[in-house]
What we know:
six-stranded mixed beta sheet; 32% helix; single chain; 18 helices
Amino acid sequence: MADPLYVDAVFVEDGIISTMGERDEILTHIRPDTEIVNLNGAVLLPGFIDSHSHIAAFAQTLGVAQLSSCRDFAGIQEKLREFAANRKIGSQDWIVGIGYDEQHLEEGRHPDRGVLDAALPGVRVLITHASGEAGVISSLGLSAAGITADTKDPEDSIIGRMAGSSLPNGYLEGEIFSSVASKIAPPDEDQLLDQLEAAQDIYARHGITTAQEGLTRDEEWAMLRAFSDSGRMSLDIICYVDPKEAKHLSQENLSRVQRYKRHLKIGGYKLFFDGDLQDQTAWMSVPYPGETDYFGEPRYSDEEAELLLFESMNDHLQVLVHCNGDAAAQQMISACRKITEDSDVGLRPVMVHAQFLRPDQLPSMANLGIIASFFPAHIYFWGDLHMRNFDPQKAAYISPAQSAKQAGVVFTFHQDTPTLLPNMLNAVWCAVNRKSRRGTVLGEEEQVSILDALKAITIHAAYQYFEEDSKGSIEVGKRADFVVLDFNPLRVRPADIKRVRVLKTIKDDRVIYERE
C-alpha cells in the first residue's frame, strides 16, 4: 500500500497542482512544452510558511552591521570593517552597527570610541547596545554631535568619560543617545526597497514562500506597498496592523484587506499584552524569583484588553496578541471568552509566543479556537537563562507544543525575525530536540515528532492565515508553493535536522531561490 505521506510526482499547470501520483501515470500528462524536473534523490515539501516575523523591520536591519554574535572587541571591529567594505562612505555618512551586548563580550564592558576609531579611522561610527537604549560613537561621531568635555550629562542621560578626565569616551545612554541616533539620515526609498529585496531573498533561501510583517505602521506599510507595486515582491506577505497607531491602514486599503494584491495583503491587527522573558517584563501570575511583588509588566487592564480585542474583532479581522507570561495569556483567554460567549466569530485569534502557558489554560484555548504560535528557538538560545530565572519545572514547560497537541490546540512555529534569521528548519530542530545551548533538555515530554513540527510550519501555518485550502500541503488544487530539501527530514535522526539544507524554493511554480 502506498504511503499517504508520499507521492512520486506532481503535475503543475498555471501555478496550480493539477494532478499527482505515481511517476508513470503523471508522465502521461506531459505536453511538448512541459518542463520535467528530476529531483535526483532530493525531496519536495510544501513551501514553508512564516507564522510570525517582521520582514520590513528585518529589511531595515540590513542597512546596518549586525553585532549580536560578536564575543569581543576584535569581533566588533571585524564586523564593522566587513560591513563598510563594499559601501561608498561620504564625509557626512555614518556606519551603524546594532545588537552588541557587553555581558557577552570577553572584555565584560562596553567598547569605547578608541575601539571604533581603530576599526574605521576617519569615519563616523555608531553602534547600538542590544537594549536599544545606549551605545557608542566614534571620535568623529562625537565631534559631529557636538559632545565635548564641556558637555554636561543631560537629565536621564549618561555621557561616558575617559578615566581620570571629563573627555567623553564615546559611550552614551538614555535620551542623549536616542537624540544622536535619531539625527542619522535614514536610507532613501530606493535603498530601502533594495534592502527589502535582500530580506525577501533570505526568507526564500530558508524555504519560505509566505512571510509576515507582524507590526505594521505607516512606515512599514509604505515600504511594503511600494515594493509590491514595483513588481519586485515574489513572496506572499501578510501584514498585521498596529490598531493603536495605524488602524487607518486597514480602512484605506480595502483592496488588500484579507486578499492579496501583487502578493501583499492585510491579515488583521497586532496587540501586545506584556513584555519579554529575557528582561523579565513578561506578565506572570506569580512573582519572579527573588521578588515579592513584581509580576512583570501588563500593558492593559482587563477592561482595556477586552475593549481592544472587541474593537478589532468587530472589524471582522483576525487578531495576533503578544503574550509571553501566563497572566498575559489568561487575560487574552478571558477576553476572548467574554467577547465570543454569545457567538462563534471564527476569527482564529493567535497567541504569539505563548511561552509560559499553564496546563490548565490549554483546554480553554482549544475551546475558543485560539492558535498558539510558539517560538521554540527560545529553548536553545535562552533556555539556560530561563532555568536560572525561573523554577526549573516551569522553565521546562516553555513552548509546550506536545501538551498543546494533546489538548487540541492548533500550533505553529516562528523565528520572530529579525530576532533570529527566518530558518524554519531551526525551529523544527528546536521543537523536536528541546535542547539548550549547554545541552540541557528542557521538558523532554514536550518534544514533538518531526512530522508534527513540519506541520507547524506548513499546513497549520496555512490554517492560521485562513489559507489551508490553497497552501500548506501538496494537494490537487493548491498553489505550487514548494521547497526542495537535500534530505528527507522525516528520515533523519532528530539531532541531524540541522544538517538538512534547502536546495530550491518555488513560489507559484517559479523558482525564487536555488542553491549554487
